[in-house]
Structures are given as structure tokens and as C-alpha cells.
Amino acid sequence: MLDELIGISILLPFIAGTLCFLVKDHRVRAGIIVATGIALTIDSLLLFQGLSGSYSYTPESLLGIDINSLITFADFALLFIILAIAFKLGNPLIILLTLLQIVPLGYFELKMAHHVEVTPAFYIDSLSVIMNLIISIVGSLICIFGIRYMEEHEHHLHLKKSRQPRFFFFLVLFLGAMNGLVFANNLLWLYFFWEVTTFCSFMLIGHDRTEIAIRNATRALWMNMSGGVAFVAAIILIFHTTGSVEYLSLQTLINHGPALTSALLLPFSLLCFSGFTKAAQVPFQSWLCGAMVAPTPVSALLHSSTMVKAGVYLVVRLAPGYQGTFLSTMVATFGAFTFLTASALAVNMSNGKKILAYSTIANLGLIIACAGINTPAAIIAAVLLIIFHAISKGLLFLCVGTIEHAIGSRDIEDMRGLYNSMPAVSRITIIGILTMMLPPFGALMSKWMAIEAAAHIPWVVVMVALGSGLTVLFWARWAGLFVSGPHLKVFEADKDSGLLGPFVTMFKGFATKVKWNAPASIKVPMVSLAVGAIVLSLAVPWLYTTLVDPVLSSYRPGVFVEPFRTGPLGITSGTGAFYVLPVFLFSILGYIVAVAAVKRKGHRVISAPYMCGEQYADCAQPKFRSHLNSWKDYIAANIYMQDIIGEEKISYWINIVSLVILIVLFGEVLR
Amino acid sequence: MSMNEVVAVIAAILVSPIIGGLVAGLDRKVTARLQGRYGPPILQPFYDVLKLFGKEKMIVNYWQIFCAYMYLVADVLTIILLALQSDLLLIFFVLAVGGVFLVIGALAAESPYSQIGAQRELIQMLTYEPLLILVFVGIYLETGSFKISEIIANYNQPLLLSLPLLFVVMGYALVIKLKKSPFDIATSHHAHQEIVKGVLTEYSGPYLAIIEISHWYETVFLLGLCALFWHTSFVWMAVLVVATYFGEVLVDNVCARLTWRWMLPHAWTGGLIMAFANYFWIYEKIG
Questions:
Q1: Do B59 and A606 touch (CB under 8 A)?
Q2: Residue range A140-146: mean pLDDT, rounded
Q3: Are A305 and A337 in the same domain?
Q4: CA of A484, closest CA in chain B: separation in Å?
């Protein structure tokens, strides 16, 4: 049963993607995508239900072909395709990086270790299941959102011939590659899926074929290919140091004996480096920021459930293997530094998608910092952050995409007062923002765990504390901008909905009569992600006991003690407590009181904003009386601190410092 | 929840605004005396709030009402969690909720005054939040817990003696949070500092009253944090709290408002240096 489920979650997207590519009718394609999404979701839920502890699976053959050879063949085929692309792009760096993978890998497979067989090929534990759930559910929702979005997108571009088949081929394929990646135990297979995600992201980023799209796709390719080179080097080094293919099994590698720790530190560092490139940590942040030129579903997918999550998955997965070493401290330092600097860069942005991009990089940095802190509590924090970040960030990208199609801009200054024209989308965006930054929501709870876990390493906790202050700044002002604006007659609150009112308000806003006109394929993903972000935060104690806590036990049996206890109140540890439920209930109570206050009947004056008594009489038009009795518009804008932390200004220094951290990391490991 | 805790929570909800209001009244009296004036009666803040409640409700849009109430709710929850002696970081995050809603409420009105006020308030939050986290981490390093209940139960000497520098760091945060000069950048209690009332510009009548009451809750919370630094003796706790607040009032009166461009780098640098020095001290002691 589990074997089939694993097979389906990897192969189905490959098949469905191919079908999407072949089918020309867009309605049939939409059907395929929706059906695949539903199938993947059910598949992942069944897998979650069916798994107890851990499970290993080694498929022998697929349609009569030996899978090991098939993957080896596909691996080389993929590398040669990339090489061909590199020649076409005329980019010597990518040619070099590809050759640096083909030649060593060929030497390794043909000369060093003939016909590598690693058992088990797949190893599934709680961490894999969590990743699989995120990929299958969040990823599918994003693909479904893409159906309608891409229609509008191509409509805006006035394309003669639809390029959607190609687009959905890579988009759906991505999910399969990610599922393979999180299930793989054989490092060579993991590497194959790793390269597939690199390739897919390159194709998707460059999808629009504009000059900037190709440039940014190329950058993404070379940065990720450098990670690939490190990956191959790690594989060969592991074999070289241990002299056996046994250690190419991820589980054996992580649970290696203490005698091997120092010898394996370099391969671990290389694998972590590979993870850093994929997770777009500084100094590799520019590929993820550049990836935003792609259509929104791509950004949403890359940022939330796939690609970058593969990077942090690897680092978190390997964490027990380098626990207590110098590498671990350096990983923590590196992650915390990324968290701080990416948050600072996000404060500097007025481009909504760039804010999201830097916030993603920051959160990934925090996850990596947690992996580096490497205590049970920190690992729990990392896993929870992976979950909640995927949901909220996926949601926020869909929101920004929808807004961009409606207003033609992704600048947050242009979203000022958007609540007045797009109430539903604005409300969902605000939910997305608040779930990223406020208690009792999950993302903040993970941050709480992270800070408490980091308390032992002063410089890490300082960077996390400064970074978390910065995140509050850029999220709060963005949320505030949506509601900034005059009071409109349409939004006259319905005052008669009684006790049910606050709940209706939660879903429909103050003015229940204002309709949200959008097709189901836009609405369903957005609403499900918004509801998911809230409900899962509420269900954190359950989530913890059923999903996250087992990560530790299947992680490295017997080594970790349970860091947290769950109870009816929330999550407590030896040193702290996060009362999820009471805080949640009190917040809901407060929310009801606040809404009731808004809806209360009675006399109320709506006025224009204060302009020293010289404001325009009509409060829907912000103007003031200027010289010669003329009416002038006024405008206010956010402080972006360009002069202190301008992107161009500080990126240079951030890159240098992060390179220094990496050099120290490798230097000390090599010593 | 035990009976004691229920009593503590109810007392905290009911008594805090009274204490907060009285502190505000005393504050005004002392300030007046420092400035050579006679000053209003101690109960003046209560009269002000009562008067505000009687005024006409005037808003720019509905979000202001919503945000004013959410601000109050967050501050009440902060006090409840403090009364329950729960996790310091959790309390801190709940406190931040209040700040966020105050800012959203200010941004809701398009007026340039409240917009600039909101931006400044955000930068103030940016300044004090990391400092408070560092203080809490210091408390954890010294006592081994983030939970106030366990700190009180297991740690038997005044925190001030081992965390004096972090107490100073908290002083920075207090100045900002209590809206005192030189860091009353987003809005000020003193009319001479500004013409228009920054982040509170667009709030009036009952909604301004709600924000004023929230501020009283916040004051009590901050004094509570202060009290934690000498939890072993009530007398010394009282001395510490009174002395700290008087110090804040004094600073308020001898300083003029500074800009955020000055505040942010100086508070962060000073705070970081002192925090690190104090951490080092703790490590030395343990090691």
C-alpha cells in the first residue's frame, strides 16, 4: 500500500505534466491539473495516515527497466541537456559548472564505484511526510490557481500561440521531483531530483522569454549549479573517506559512528553549502529575488512549497549528522546572519514581491539557524516554521499576483486603500500578513521556539532579535496600507447581523453586500490557504504530537529527549510556555468585541483626515486648501530608509560578510 | 487554573487601569513641579478619559475603531499573562500585537500627520523590541527560565545585582514605550514637542479614551517588568519601581525630542554593547 502511494506521489506529476504538455485544449488541461492536485492531496493524506514510525522502500524496476540504471541515465541526460542549454546561452560559467558535475560523476559511476546499489532507496519518516503534505497540498493549490492566472497572464501579453502546455509541464513536474527529493534515501537519487528542481526552476523563471527573464533564469541556473557541484563533490568524498557505498544512504550517513564525524565533516559542509544555494541564502539571494520576473504561480511555488524548501530540508535532515561540531555553530551563525540581513533588505523594499522574496530568504535563514542550533527544540522550531511559512507565503504570493493583475502594479504604495476597491483580496492578504507576524499564529510560535533555543549562542540570538524587530516593521506597515483610505458609502457596516455578525465579518468583511467576483480556481486556493493558516495555528498542539514530535524520534533514535509537552493550553517546555489556545480564544473574543464596536448602532461622524482645518469637505477626496484657495492633493509614503540600508548600498557588504562566514566555515573544516 | 490565578487575573484587569491612571496623574504632577508649575490634580487623567467618553464619535474609517479595540485587547492580554506569571517572550509578543494594531489604526487614516506618526511608531518598535528580547534572554541565561513563575520560585536573589547593564538597556525600552523624551518621536504627552499628535492624530473621543486606557495597562506592565528585577523583597521592589519611574520623568523633562535617525543607531549600539557585556559577565560567573 505505502509502496504504491510513494510511487504515485512521484510518478503521477511526471505523467500528468507530460499530459499537460501534450493536450492542447485548455479545459482538458485544467481538468488534468485539478485531478492531479486532488489525487496528490489524497495520496499524501493516506501516506500520512498509513505511516507509523518510518518506512523503507526500494523499487526494483519500472516497466521492466532497472530503476537504478534509469535514474543514472536520466541524470546524465539532464546534465547534457543543461550543458546544451549552457552552450546555447553562451555562458562559460554554466558550461564549466556542468562539466564539473558530468566529469566527476562519470568518473565516480564508471571508475570508482561500479553500479551503486543503495538500500533502502526511499526512506520515509515524519519529516518526509510533512514535506510531502506541504508539496502535495500547498503545491497543488498553487498549480490550480495557475490555471486561471495563466489565461489572464497570456491575455495581458497578447500571445499568438499559448505557451501554457510547456508552463504546466514544468510546474506539475516540479511537484513530482520534490516528492522524490524528500523521499530519497540514496544520495545519488536525491541528487537527481535535486538537479530536476534546478532545471525546472530555470525553465519556469525564464518562461516569459523577455531579456530580463532569461538573464535572471541564467543567474538562478549558475548559482544552483554551483550547489550541484558541491553535491557531487560531497558524494565522491563520502565514498572516498568511508570506502563503501553504504554511506551513500542518507540514514547511514546521518547516524554514522562517532569515529567518522571529523572525516565526514567536509562532505556535510558541502551538502549544507548545496542547501544554502538552493535556499537562496546570502550571498546567493539574488537568484530568488530575480526569480520574481516569472509568472506569480512560479514565485508562489518556488517560495512556499518547493525549491527553496528543498534546500532547508537537506540542511535540517542532515542536522543530527553534524550535531555538536564546529560546522553546526557556523550553520547557525550563517542562518542567523541571513535572517538579519534579508529582513533589513525587506524593510528597504516597496515592491511587494521583493518584500515577500526577502522575507522568504529571511525565514529560510531562520530555519537554517535552527538546524545549526541543533537542539531538539530548535529542530522542532525549524520544522514548524517550514510548515507555517509554506502556507502563509504561498497565500501571500497568490494575493500579490491577484492584486497585480487587477491594479497593474506590485508596489505596496499603490496598494494604499486597496480595501476600498478589492475588499476580499485585501482581507485575505491581511490575514496572510498577520499569520506571518503575530501570536498566536504558527509562524510566530516557531520564532518563539527559535529564540528560546538560540538563547545559548549570544551572537545568534542577537541577530535573531534584531531581525525579528525588522520583520514586524515591514509586515505591519504593509497590512496598514491596505486599510488606509477614506470611508466609502458602500462600506456602511451592516448593523443588524446580531451575534452571528462577527463571524460573518470574519469571512465577508464589514460590508457583507460587497461581492467578490473571481473564478473558483482563484478563490478556492486563496481561501483554503487562509483558512489553513489560521486553523493549523490553532491546532498546533495536535500538529506537534502527531507530526512534528515524531520527527525527533525517527531522526536519531534515543539521542533526543522530548523538548516540549503539549496540553490543552498549548505547548510548554522546561524553560517556557506558549499558551496557544488561551491566547487564541482571548484574541477571538477581542476580535468579536472589536467588530461589535464597529457595528454598534448610534450617532457617528465620518470626517476627512485632519489637515489643520483646511481639509476638503468631501472626505472621499483627500485634499487641502493651499495658496490662492486652490485645492491640492497630499500624499504620504512609507519610510524605506534608503539612505541607511539601500539595497545597492548594503548588498555588497552583506555578500562580503557572508562569504567570509562561508570561508571560515570551510577553512576550519578543512583544517 | 487555580483560584489564586483567577483572583490575580481579575485583579490585574480591574486594578491595572486604576494604577496606570494614578501613575499618569502623578507623572503630570511631578512634571509640573519640575517645570515650576502647580500641575493638575492627581485624578486628572481619569477626568480626561471620562470626558473623552462623553464626546461625539468621530472617525475617518471603521478600521480605526477596530484597531483601537484590538490595541486594548492586546494590552489587557499582556497584563493577564503577566498576572499568570507566564512566559516572558510570549508576553512580549502579545505586547507587540498592540503596537501593530495601533500602527494599522494610524495608517487607516490618510492624513499625513498620522501616517508619519505611524512610520515613526514602527521605527520606535523596531528600536525597543530587540532590546527587550535581549533583556529577556539575559534573564533566561541568569535564571534558567523564561517563565516568570519559575524565576520567582527558583531564583533567590535580586536580578538587578546580576543584570545591572540589562536593566539600563530596559531603561531605553521604557523611555520609548512610555512615550518619554528624548524618544517620544511618534507622539508626545507634552504639547511643546509637537503641533499635531503624531500617531494619535486621527483618534478622538471615546476611541482616544480607549487608547489612553490601553496605555495605562502598558504602563503597569512595564512597571511590572521593572519589579521583576527585585522580586525578593517588596520594599526594595517598590523603591526600584518608584526610582525608575522618577528617573524616566526626570529624563523626560531634561531632554528634547530627538529624531529616529539618532535614536535607532544609538539605542541599538548602546543596547548591544551593554547586553553583550552583561552576557559576558553571566558567563564568567557560571564558568
A1: yes
A2: 95
A3: no
A4: 4
